[in-house]
Design goal:
Blueprint lengths: L4 E5 L2 E5 L5 E5 L3 E6 L5 E6 L3 E5 L2 H7 L4 E5 L2 E4 L3 E5 L4 E4 L4 E3 L10
């Protein structure tokens, strides 16, 4: 079982693995965090790579700065990477073209 521990370090997000591998990501480079199809896992999406780790979006949100907002129960978005919003379809379009759903309850945070 993966027992990764992650914590925010200022503007750097640290992914610590159980082995000898540690990845440091600048918060500015992270486009979003998404719930994974694998149970109890979260995907970290950057412009150049996708990482996966154990944890929940709520845990990660508590570690990140004010630029990260839940758009939906399955996605934590870096608002610095939002380039467009389709209010009718309730979709955020990120700097890499990724389309992220926005729930009705969260819509007011992005207006």
């Amino acid at each position: 079982r993966d027992r990764s521990v992650s914590r925010g370090l200022g503007d750097v997000y640290k992914r610590q693995h159980t082995g000898s591998h540690v990845t440091y990501l600048k918060q500015d480079d992270i486009l979003c965090f998404q719930s994974s199809s694998n149970a109890h896992k979260v995907r970290i999406i950057t412009a150049n790579a996708v990482y996966e780790q154990s944890g929940s979006l709520r845990e990660i949100q508590s570690q990140m700065d004010h630029h990260f907002l839940l758009s939906h129960k399955s996605c934590l978005v870096n608002t610095s990477h939002i380039v467009e919003m389709d209010k009718i379809r309730r979709i955020l379009i990120l700097s890499n073209g990724l389309q992220i759903p926005v729930s009705v309850r969260q819509m007011h945070f992005f207006l």
